[in-house]
Amino acid sequence: MTDKKQFEEGLQERQKDVERVLRSYLPEKKGWQKTIFEAMEYSLMAGGKRIRPILMKEAYILFGGENEKVIEPFMAAMEMVHTYSLVHDDLPAMDNDDYRRGRKTTHVVYGEDMGILAGDALLNYAFETASHGLVETNAPEAAARAFQIFSRKAGVYGMVGGQVVDVERTGQPLTKEILEFIYTLKTGALLESSLMVGAALAGAGESDLETMEQIGRCVGMAFQIQDDILDRTSTTQELGKPVHSDEKNEKTTYVSLYGIEKAHKAVEEYSDRALELLDHIQGENPFMRELIGYLVNRKK
């Protein structure tokens, strides 16, 4: 167990490492299509916690992974997929937000057309980037399994599927079952993917992959419910994005369904469950335990 200062320093070091990795895979801003390269960089390098690639690498280390040339392309690809989802989420046809991470959203700066294309470009480039890890591996079956997980969790059986149901049900009353389905796919899928991909690349077996998936699901639920709480209780200045956006967009959330008190309790229960599951994994990663606690108790 580390103290708060040590954890924060460790997190900052890992965030800087992710920034380095992302910059190393960004395309050069030249050629006739230079605008899209600029928009991709603007979106990808806008800051953020970089939690998904950090979780991926920590899972890779937990299962004994050591080859940075294998894990780093997948780390970059994961952040590209996450970023594209935010770029599209902010579009006028979706949440119509003008600010993200404390600065103007991509479509506000580059226009709605380039906002759409920047998201498309990041998604396609993510798979191109991840393929570098496939080339570098000396365990092709493990890498193929990781690529399969990465692909599925980003698509219609993962994040996109959750977004579809979220968009369709906006303005409608939701049951707990539907809300949890949306949260599990829209938010949880990429967190599940991050943990599973890191583990798979390091050669983890199917049983351990299932456990990592469950951990990611619990973290995803806790993360999204905490997001609901912050949307209701925080400020735009603190969050770096508009607050009360769920209310504005007539979205049912865990908070609107159950209230703040039950929402806080749910965050704690999902967090505890994630840590219990982590205890079932052979090997230790103290930083990962601290990170899970940080995620579900964050203030922004």
Shape: globular
| Helix segment tally | 15
SSE string, helix = H, strand = E? HHHHEEHHHHHHHHHHH
Distance between the termini: 23 Å
Oligomer: single chain
Helix content: over 70%
The mean pLDDT is 92
Strand content: under 5%
Structural class: mainly alpha
Poorly predicted spans: none
Radius of gyration: 18 Å
How many strands, which pairing sense, and closed or not: the largest β-sheet?
2 strands, antiparallel
Total strand segments: 2
- Spatial sequence of strands, sheet with the most strands: 1-2
Give the gist of this structure.
The chain has 300 residues and is an all-alpha fold. It has helices at 4-25, 34-44, 51-62, 68-89, 106-110, 112-136, 140-154, 159-168, 176-201, 206-233, 236-239, 245-248, 254-258, 260-278, 286-296; strands spanning 99-100, 103-104. A two-stranded antiparallel ribbon has the order 1-2.
Structure description:
The structure is a single chain. With 300 residues, this protein is mostly helical. Helix content is 73%, strand content 1%. It has 15 helices and 2 strands. Helix 3 (51-62) runs antiparallel to helix 4 (68-89). The two termini are 23 Å apart. The mean pLDDT is 92.
Task: Annotate the secondary structure layout.
Elements: H1 4-25, H2 34-44, H3 51-62, H4 68-89, E1 99-100, E2 103-104, H5 106-110, H6 112-136, H7 140-154, H8 159-168, H9 176-201, H10 206-233, H11 236-239, H12 245-248, H13 254-258, H14 260-278, H15 286-296
Antiparallel strand pairs: 1-2
Helix pairs in contact: 1-4, 2-6, 3-4, 3-9, 3-15, 4-6, 4-9, 6-7, 7-9, 8-9, 9-10, 10-14, 14-15
